Amino acid sequence: MTTPTDIGAELPLQQAETVVIRFAGDSGDGMQLTGNQFTTTSALAGNDLATLPDYPAEIRAPIGTRAGVSGFQLAFSSTDIHTPGDAPDVLVAMNPAALAVNYKQIKPGGLILANTGNFGKNDLKKAELETNPLEDGTLDGYRVIAIDINARVQEALKDSGLSKKDAERCKNLYTLGLMYWLYSRDLKPTEDWLQKKFGEKAPELAAANILALRSGFNAGDIHQLFQGRFEVPKCEDLPAGTYRNIMGNPAIALGLITGAELAGLELVCGSYPITPATTILETLAAHKHYRVTTLQMEDEIAAVCAAIGASFAGKLGCTSTSGPGMALKTEAMGLALMTELPLVVVNVQRGGPSTGLPTKTEQADLNQAIYGRNGEAPIPVLACATVSDAFECAIEACRIAVEYMTPVILLTDGYIANGAEPWKLPNIDELPKIKQKFAVAKEGEEFLPYSRDEKGARPWAKPGTPGLAHRIGGLEKAHLTGSVCYDSENHEFMVHARAEKVAGIRDSIKTPEVHGPAKGDLLVLGWGSTYGAITESCEALRRKGKEVSQMHLRHLFPLPHGLAEIFANFKQVLVPEINLGQLARILRAEYPGVEFLSHGRVLGLPLSAHELAGKIEGLLEN
Amino acid sequence: MSETLTKKDFKSNQDVRWCPGCGDYAILNVVQGVCAELGVHKDNVAFVSGIGCSSRFPYYMDTYGFHTIHGRAPAVATGLAAANPDISTWIVTGDGDALSIGGNHLAHLLRRNVNVNLMLFNNEIYGLTKGQYSPTSPVTTRTKTSPMGSIDRPFNPLSFALGCNSTFVARTIDTNLKHMARILKAAAAHKGASFVEIYQNCVIFNDGCFGEMSDKKIRDDRSVDLIPGEKMVYGNDGEKGLRWEGGAIVRCSAADAAVWDPTGSAAAAFAMSTLDHDPEMPNPLGIFHVVDAVVYDEAVNRQLDEAVAKKGRGTLKDLIYAGECWDVK
Ligand SMILES: Cc1ncc(C[n+]2csc(CCOP(=O)(O)OP(=O)(O)O)c2C)c(N)n1
Ligand code: SF4
Ligand SMILES: [Mg+2]
């Protein structure tokens, strides 16, 4: 929840606790860059923050249209926050389409900064507007600051030597400068970044962009556009440590590299580009000096198969994708399961089914992850709760894959993938160790590729190991020898052996903690990226004196020990999900005595903390 | 590993389960012999296959082996080769496995030039699923799924491979063991993706489909062996030859035959590949095309070495404590 900020106050500098800004413009207006710069600067200023980029699905939607609007929402705060906020305090609208798409979500009385340079007749037409919303009363009840940023940038850069067109492209930095003034931010991090980005190759661009930034900043001061200035102090709630800003997909990539290193293995990622997973592959490809191999294959089937081939060869195979790609990988995941090779499959969920909503978030692939294969095919499934949790989950996925010789599915989603937050960096020495050793031949002993250790894992014998030549494959294997075996008793034995191995993973995982009272009327149980919204709503309600408890699942299959005991302490368990109740249904089957209620929304958006709080309050009152 | 291995060392303890008389036996026999002759230790060899009668092959080799899923052996082998280029990696596939369900992966394996030896057992039929027409079956092939004759025009595997920019393309036949051994040795010696089509008789569902090429009485008349640097001569008495005329291949006397050069442009090889099923012309076996190109798995690993040389081997500390960090006290 954000604290309302009173924009109209005449105070020169006012403290604000949490501010939510949404930058919105045409895809070509550089709004993602602007948002990211504001994020980095706020992080360096010590704020807690959360972001929500919102890209158009088309790369080059017609300029000025509603379809082409690109947005970036950012919440920054002096307290611990968990979501990018439901309703922005400030909307920066670079054109009429951006205004039309976004203004309804602004907080009542919120501030709208509109670039009138793009509010001509034609611009309004492209945005399908009959009249100008800046003039027709649409924005009554908001504080509107209408300035011609295009003209101001031209004015500021008239001596820069840039063409008019190039000068206009600096308008996002002018706008950023204005917002930096309004929120008393330091210009230096962005100036340094511009220097680094353009400095050597195009010093004139670096200089012009910095000038645009400073001009915007000074305009706040000189032109008295705003009636007050705000300051969001450093967040004192953040635990001590070293931090950096990170987005979800890079966090997954770094976690995979770390997991492989902790296991003493080299990572091989077979992948095929797909929104919103692609930046995992891109990040891994930039880390070849960690001996990370990336194979951009011809499709998702080839991608997962190449990863399986790499695992067979004795490296750690992984593959990254989103829903449609996940569907293609299904058969090969069964092969990895049958051959009991380690494999990490990352599914960055997006709106489905089919091509669905590529740039929007959803949690509707849980059933697919747990059940979506032929045969009795248990594959461990985990999900990350937050951007920084993504790093830990990726390590955990590697641990399970390697220690149990099994494919593992790691679920994340578009919201985590593109969201950014300050990440408290782990102490390297405290990272979990992953136990791994390759099989070697033992004198006078027959090698049994399908023998099992105490955890039920089979030995990993890589090609090139003297004396261990053996054959694996997707046909049913004889216990111990691994020879092809059609015997019915053996098949049943092996089905159980595989199921028990995976079920046994729960012996290595912790029971999740309950936040709030340990007993009560209502437990809110979440998984994946709804963590922020659930935490925010539960904390807000507890502050209001309501009794509500919260628990979050990282391991979805197998489920951790101890859940039945926890559920027994509550009258009802509410399961909020961005799907139609997939986890709730699984839990009903698993814990038949417990009353699970589902709160499912599928708007392509993160859950609204506000709406969820209302739902919880309603339940508590009944 | 200096011990020398014999053919027997490459035989696994599994009972071979192909139908009696199946061409696959001959191929297995030759491959086991070739492996022994290559001097590569069986612990450094991996056979990867898809699904089909032919794809059971790895179980019968006492090497590392991976019987994967239908059509995907090229993708699995690409991962294996990239992860460990030192393993001598072989792919065994069928006409259905390689050219219907796995056609995409085959194309990409070939264009990438992954260092593998691929043997496509072409019996112009789906053997394992009991005799349906395949993407190499000639039009009008009658099977249970094509009772009035198949309609689909077939692939020519060699034309396909050449179209994929293959660096080594050859054909041999299950009934000529010496020829097969020679071709497979040449394939193994080639660095990059070696594509070998092996005409293989399915006694049960497509018996005799390469009869003319197998029948000792007529096979020398019906086929020509493309041997690099030698004249293209054929015929029961070696009396016939082939040469180029106006960009096309024509028959001539042995004396006028041209010398075969597989190292030039793929166009000549392509023209040769189209002679199959031409009743007027001998069907070529042998080495169609050999060129050198960057080897994928080597290049993949070279980039890793270069990155490490340039930036130093990354540490976890560098990885995690990267970019702009700040301290909260
Ligand atoms: C995904 C999938 N689809 C279908 C099958 C059934 N299938 C197994 S082998 C095969 C065709 C094999 O033909 P080919 O590759 O020519 O091999 P052959 O048996 O002739 O050696 C088919 C259709 C399968 N195993 N997997
Ligand atoms: S069905 Fe045909 S290809 Fe398959 S084993 Fe029998 S003879 Fe060989
Ligand atoms: Mg076949």
SSE map:
The complex is a heterodimer of chains A (622) and B (329).
Chain A: E1 13-15, E2 18-26, H1 31-44, E3 48-54, E4 69-77, E5 90-93, H2 96-102, E6 111-115, H3 121-126, E7 143-147, H4 149-156, H5 164-168, H6 171-182, H7 188-198, H8 203-222, E8 229-231, E9 241-247, H9 248-262, E10 267-271, H10 278-285, E11 293-296, H11 300-312, E12 316-321, H12 323-339, E13 343-349, H13 366-371, E14 381-383, H14 387-404, E15 407-413, H15 414-418, E16 420-424, E17 471-473, H16 488-503, E18 520-527, H17 531-543, E19 549-553, E20 555-557, H18 563-567, E21 570-577, H19 582-590, E22 596-600, H20 609-621
Parallel strand pairs in A: 1-8, 2-5, 5-6, 6-7, 10-11, 10-12, 12-13, 13-15, 14-15, 18-19, 18-21, 21-22
Antiparallel strand pairs in A: 2-4, 3-4, 9-16, 14-20
Chain B: H1 23-38, E1 45-49, E2 64-67, H2 73-83, E3 88-94, H3 95-101, H4 103-112, E4 116-122, H5 157-163, E5 168-173, H6 177-189, E6 194-199, H7 211-214, H8 219-222, E7 223-226, E8 233-234, E9 240-245, E10 248-253, H9 266-273, E11 283-290, H10 296-311, H11 316-320, E12 325-328
Parallel strand pairs in B: 1-2, 1-3, 3-4, 4-6, 5-6, 7-11
Antiparallel strand pairs in B: 5-11, 8-9, 9-10
Thiamine diphosphate binds at residues 51-54, 70, 94-97, 121, 123, 125-129, 134 of chain B.
Describe the structure.
The complex is a heterodimer of chains A (622) and B (329). Chain A has 622 residues and is α/β, with parallel strands linked by helices. Chain A has three domains: 219 residues, Pyruvate-ferredoxin oxidoreductase, PFOR, domain III (Pyruvate-ferredoxin Oxidoreductase, domain 3), CATH 3.40.920; 187 residues, Rossmann fold, CATH 3.40.50; 102 residues, 3-Layer(aba) Sandwich (Rossmann fold). Chain A contains 20 helices and 22 strands. Chain A has a seven-stranded mixed beta sheet, sandwiched between helices. Chain A is globular. The N terminus of chain A is likely disordered. Chain B is α/β, with parallel strands linked by helices and 329 residues long. Chain B folds into two domains: 245 residues, Rossmann fold (3-Layer(aba) Sandwich); 70 residues, no CATH class. Chain B has eleven helices and twelve strands. Chain B has an eight-stranded mixed beta sheet, with helices on both faces. Chain B has a three-stranded antiparallel beta sheet with strand order 8-9-10. Chain B starts with 22 loop residues before the first helix and ends with a strand. At the A-B interface, helix 1, strand 9, helix 9, helix 11 and helix 12 of A face strand 1, strand 2, helix 2, helix 4 and helix 10 of B. Strand 9 of chain A pairs antiparallel with strand 12 of chain B. Bound molecules: thiamine diphosphate, iron/sulfur cluster and magnesium ion. Magnesium ion binds next to helix 3 of chain B.
